[in-house]
Amino acid sequence: MATRAPNGSPQVVLITGASSGIGKACALHLVSRGFRVYGTSRRARPADAPAGVEMLEMDVTSDDDVARGVAQVLAAESRIDVLVNNAGYGIAGAVEDTTVEEARAQFETNVFGPLRLCRAVLPHMRARRAGLVVNVSSIAGLVPVPFQAFYSASKAALESMSEALRMEVRPFGVRVALLEPGDFRTGFTASRVRTVASTQQSPYYERGERALAVMERDEQGAEPPEAIARELERIIADPSPRLRHPVGKALQRAAPTLRQLLPSGLYERLMMQTYEILS
Q1: Which tens digits make up the pLDDT trace of 237-270?
Q2: Domain Ketoreductase, which positions (predicted)?
Q3: Residue 92: strand pairing partners
Q4: For labelling, which of 126, 200, 219, 248 has a CA lying 20 to 30 Å from the CA of 167?
Q5: pLDDT exceeds cutoff 60 at 73
Q6: Domain count, the chain
Q7: 137 is catalytic
Q8: Has residue 120 got a pLDDT over 60?
Q9: Does the annotation mark 24 as catalytic?
Q10: Is the pLDDT of residue 148 over 90?
Q11: 111 located within any domain
Q12: Annotated catalytic residue: which of 19, 41, 152, 154?
């Protein structure tokens, strides 16, 4: 695996949302493989810092925080070889029960956060004519999930942005790839935010609770996220990685293809059965 830059020094990787879950697993794995890793967290508490990772305090919804954090890494290392946009969260609730403010906050972190990081880092990658941007999306970005409509929509937006970005920066020697995890056992389940209107008074409450119970059961029964970290290392080592890198159970990885191949009515019925919301 190519853990070093052309000058022989360790490759410098910046990972947002590195204090827990997928980001932490990726940071720890890359450190163990010889990379120089910087991680970000909204509150960079020493107790949360993965061993060997330089942690920075950064809120990806803040222009000032992003500019300051990127400047810190560049001042210390003179370059960023790999940017991993991982920071994100999910809101749960019916579309009708979601306010515009709640939906906007979801996009602010999951879409505009990566945009801020790209705008801060890409000028330096272009100047060096080298670099890699890995955006952590989700299979839900290709397969919308009921009662997680705006999480799915935010990841779909990240998918489209990444595909366009890949074509835009390729002439400058910069690579772009998407990591698309399925269900993994992380802190995502506990950090999922329910919309304020998702109460027993909502006409969607009962079905929403059943769907969320299925999601939580699948997540808690899944594998830890080390497989995602290994796939990230493979992407970094590939001089010409493909765009999409789904990671997870075979059925989840096949879901986007099934969505295209099956009649739409049958596909919707299968999805509703899966999330126990048919009746």
Answers
A1: 999 999 999 998 898 999 999 999 999 999 999 9
A2: 11-182
A3: 194
A4: 248
A5: yes
A6: 1
A7: yes
A8: yes
A9: no
A10: yes
A11: yes
A12: 19
Please name the helix (run of DSSP H) or strand (run of DSSP E) that holds residue 184, with its range, or none: none
32 in Cβ contact with 11 (< 8 Å): no
Give the pTM.
Answer: 0.93
List helix spans (H) across the chain. 21-32, 63-77, 100-110, 112-128, 149-169, 188-191, 205-220, 226-237, 250-261, 264-274
Q: Cβ–Cβ contacts within 10 Å for residue 192, how many?
A: 17
Torsion on CA atoms 135, 55, 70, 154, rounded to nearest 10? 30
Q: Which of 38, 41, 137, 198 is catalytic?
A: 137
Active-site residue 155, yes or no?
yes
Mean model confidence pLDDT for the chain: 94
| 262 located within any domain | no
Whether residue 259 lies inside any domain: the answer is: no
- Residue (of 176, 232, 170) closest to 15 by Cα position: 232
Asked if residue 37 belongs to a domain, the reply is yes
Tokens for 68?
């300051």
* Strand, coil or helix: 99: coil
Q: Find the CATH number of the domain harbouring 148.
A: 3.40.50.720
**205/223: higher pLDDT:** 205
Q: How confident is the model over 224-243, as a mean pLDDT? A: 96
Locus of tokens 């906050």? 105
Catalytic residue among 24, 41, 138, 151: 151
Longest dimension (CA), the chain: 62
Residue numbers of the domain that contains 221: 12-249
The catalytic residue among 41, 138, 155, 198 is 155
